[in-house]
Write a structure and sequence with these properties.
Helix content: 25-40%
Bound molecules: nicotinamide-adenine-dinucleotide
CATH superfamily of the domain at 9-187 and 227-256 and 293-307: NAD(P)-binding Rossmann-like Domain
CATH topology of the domain at 9-187 and 227-256 and 293-307: Rossmann fold
Distance between the termini: 46 Å
Order of helices and strands: HEHEEHEHHEHEEHEEEHEEHEHH
Structural class: alpha/beta
Number of helices: 11
Number of strands: 13
Largest sheet: 7 strands, parallel
């Protein structure tokens, strides 16, 4: 491209949702690999503070934009003509919000995602990795959940899950790019501050402040908890930036082990030295009873195994949350 410098032509990635919990860790990791990153976010649920570690990095450029805007990929390529990889994480992530605002969530999480994917494919980029979700399996009872357990007849329990499924199917049918169906990701920077927050960040926040941990339903629900660093390793592998070539298709990403909410609550109470009794609230609409990943497809394709167990991951997350409180 005329006028482009060698710096501009460095291999670059687009990360949508770069101010979010996972997107900020992914951006950091990609910059650490020596790649340039164009990040997009509109701060719907993400925070500028999550970008503090990389906002001033010379390889990073930021577009404060809504992914509903049609020209995002073209703008990113203008900034970084060497753009070759797209990691699409921007989404409205709250299941309850999606039940209350289905049209908005379908527009952002489904239509905008499909449009971005189609543009990336038309531009013959090297890879496109979509942030899929275990919510695509709806209330499927067969455990562990294999990729084939979500199909056209699966009834997702929320527009959030429906939109994720439709995007994953679009990616799979195109034969280009991959959708990673993540189970419950947790770790530093996950926001405890909204009523829709992930259970781990909410429990840690309640634990450290000495309040009762609030459990929706009887706490017998179980989840497959994945440490954020492992989710980043999965993105890097799927884009062909690790040890295996770029992947195509749909892959579960989890640990293959499950923990009940009561078990998680006990672990967090121990780590945070919280002695308050648990507080039980009514079951939430859209919450499934069990969720556990069948992980062999991604293991075969990418040699991927989660490396950080729950005890270690929780201890790191609690240490981070303590440090945040100390510096607040
Ligand atoms: N955290 C998990 O357990 C988990 C599990 C499965 C899938 N996922 C998926 O991973 C991705 C990242 O999730 P997260 O946990 O980091 O959540 P997050 O809320 O921290 O990150 C989402 C980011 O997308 C941004 N965003 C939302 N709407 C946007 C829009 N219209 N335009 C531009 N930016 C927008 C938000 O501001 C936020 O920074 C999401 O797609 C989510 O559905 C997360």
């Amino acid at each position: 491209m005329p006028g482009s410098s060698a710096k501009d032509l460095k291999t670059a990635c687009l990360v949508t949702g770069c101010a979010g919990f996972v997107g900020s860790h992914l951006t950091e990791a990609l910059l650490g690999l020596g790649l340039a990153v164009v990040g997009v976010d509109n701060f719907f649920s993400g925070h500028r503070r999550n970008m503090a570690g990389f906002e001033a990095h010379p390889g990073f450029s930021f577009l404060e934009k809504n992914i509903l805007e049609p020209e995002i990929l073209a703008r990113a390529v203008d900034i970084r003509p060497g753009l070759a990889h797209v990691f699409h994480l921007a989404a409205i992530v709250s299941v309850p919000y999606s039940l209350a605002h289905p049209d908005e969530v379908m527009a952002v999480n489904h239509q905008a995602s499909v449009d971005l994917f189609d543009q990336a494919r038309a531009m013959a980029l090297a890879s496109f990795v979509f942030a899929g979700s275990a919510a695509e399996y709806g209330d499927c009872e067969s455990m562990p959940l294999a990729e084939s357990d979500a199909g056209p007849n699966t009834r997702q329990t929320s527009p959030y899950g429906r939109a994720k499924y439709l995007c994953s199917r679009h990616v799979e049918q195109a034969g280009f790019g991959s959708s990673l169906r993540f189970f419950n990701i947790y770790g530093p920077r996950q926001d405890p501050g909204s009523p829709y927050s992930g259970v781990v960040s909410r429990f840690i926040d309640q634990g450290l402040s000495g309040r009762p941990l609030t459990v929706f339903g009887d706490g017998g629900q179980s989840r497959d908890f994945l440490f954020v660093r492992d989710s980043v390793r999965a993105y890097v592998a799927a884009a062909g930036l690790g040890r295996v070539p770029v992947l195509s298709g749909v892959f579960n990403v989890g640990t293959g082990t499950s923990t009940t909410i009561l078990g998680l609550a006990e672990a967090v109470r121990r780590l945070t030295k919280n002695r308050a009794p648990l507080s039980f609230l009514p079951q939430r609409e859209g919450d499934v009873r069990r969720s556990l990943a069948e992980v062999s497809r991604f293991e075969r394709a990418a040699g991927f195994k989660a490396q950080t167990g729950l005890d270690k991951g929780l201890a790191r997350t609690v240490a981070w949350a303590r440090a945040q409180r100390g510096s607040a």
